[in-house]
Amino acid sequence: MADMMWAGRFSKQVDAGVNAFNSSIAFDGRMYRHDIQGSIAHATMLGDCGIITKEDSLTIIEGLKGILADIDSGKLELDPNAEDIHMFVEAELTKRLGDVGKRLHTSRSRNDQVAVDLRLYLRDQITEIYDMVKELAVTLVKMAKEHTETIMPGYTHLQRAQPITLAHHLMAYVWMLLRDMERLQDAGKRMNYCPLGSGALAGTTYKTNRQQTSDLLGFTAPMPNSLDGVSDRDYCVELCCALSLLMTHLSRFSEEIIMWCSWEFKFVELDDAFATGSSIMPQKKNPDVTELIRGKTGRVNGDLVTLLTMMKGLPLAYNKDMQEDKEAIFDAVDNVKLCVKTFTPMLATMRVIKENMRNAAAKGFINATDCADYLVKKGMPFRDAYKITGTLVAQCIEKGLTLETLPIADYQAMTDLFTEDVYEAISLDTCVRERKSEGGPSPEAVKKQIALAEKALGI
Ligand code: ARG
């Protein structure tokens, strides 16, 4: 601790408690690869611009590669007492190379260093999460293809409303996921600008080449303003926003699966490998995975609020508050990955109980709209048809019947527009088959959207 890198100005050692409080290596240590990647680009540029000698540059690069290999292999452990990953790597380099190592930080600050590290790290995470979400969407499309004829009730207000198919329902989530993928990509695109070379806040007097470091690290371009370069955390907020929305989708789906697993619905049964039992109630099979996903959504939303609140009062440029960005965005990233990774195989192995879905659709008068439409197609204004159907539903409820089992005489007592063909018109299969408007649940219409989704997913 006596050797704090910034020790020159200080006459006392930093308080041990403050040091521990200040230190971020416990959580930013995971960026060591990206930190070294950034430093190699920086050292290359320093050498090429003649800010340090070519020889020193090469020595530093070799030294950094050695540190990377040693951390990767476990030979070198991160020092928990180091202030952060940047200080740790630099100190280790200097330990290995002596004075040459001390030249690496020329024309750089930890402020632009941490900003570049975090962008590089999150860029990789976006790719990983994107691929995982894609796999989930592909799985759902596959399932949808098997269930274009699986009739189930569609709900509004959680009341049976109109008939749909499981494929139609699953595809609704595919479109949400496709938008999530687009949002991730979009966040990645805007994130991909290079802050390196911004220095502490006001650039540098050295003749650096920011284009070179930006190119070496695969960024689109250097960030045009050094103050913005070090103080921007929009990319964390944007990514977290995209992750919150993704979690919202998983959480809604989870809530449905939780209901579908209940004895009241019994539309699906989870594979034993993806459910848990109770310590006391032997009959229980609990959908813990989906409940945890629903629960973790609150946590990711919390991360988003942490980031937004952290930033809202900060003057330009860097403030230490910003060190808090990492735990929040890492927590969001980690939990999203855990959720998607578990959700996909859980869905793929879930058993669909078609007959229960169909039975639920056969009750609850979900063909009442179709009954009204039957009259409309015979010339009656919709409002009148709606009223007559409502009366018929009330009669059914009173007699313990459904529209399918109500005698034709009761229909005809309301209007002679009703003939025997009404039963065909209100049969579940007709109701679904005829809903072939674009985006509708008929097998024909759903197959069209499946084709569109397959195209979007490149499958
Ligand atoms: N550990 C710091 C962070 O995560 C690195 C930047 C420190 N800069 C500073 N001026 N203290 O934000």
Explain how this protein is built.
This protein is mainly alpha-helical. The chain is 62% helix and 5% strand. The strands form three sheets. Strands 1-2 form a two-stranded antiparallel ribbon. Strands 3-4 form a two-stranded parallel sheet. A two-stranded antiparallel sheet has the order 5-6. The protein is elongated. The two termini are 56 Å apart. Arginine (ARG) binds at residues 24, 28, 84, 110-111, 114, 318, 320, 322-323.
Would you kindly provide a brief summary of this structure?
This protein has 459 residues and is mainly alpha-helical.
Number of strands: 6
Low-confidence stretches: none
Q: What's the gyration radius in Å?
A: 31 Å
Mean pLDDT: 96
Structural class: mainly alpha
Strand portion? under 5%
What share of residues is helical? 55-70%
N-end to C-end Cα span:
56 Å
The number of distinct helices, counting runs of at least 4 residues, comes to 19
Which small-molecule species are bound to the chains here?
Answer: arginine
- Shape descriptor: elongated
**How is the biggest beta sheet arranged?**
2 strands, antiparallel
| SSE order | HHHHHHEEHEHEHHEHHEHHHHHHH
Strand order of the largest sheet: 1-2
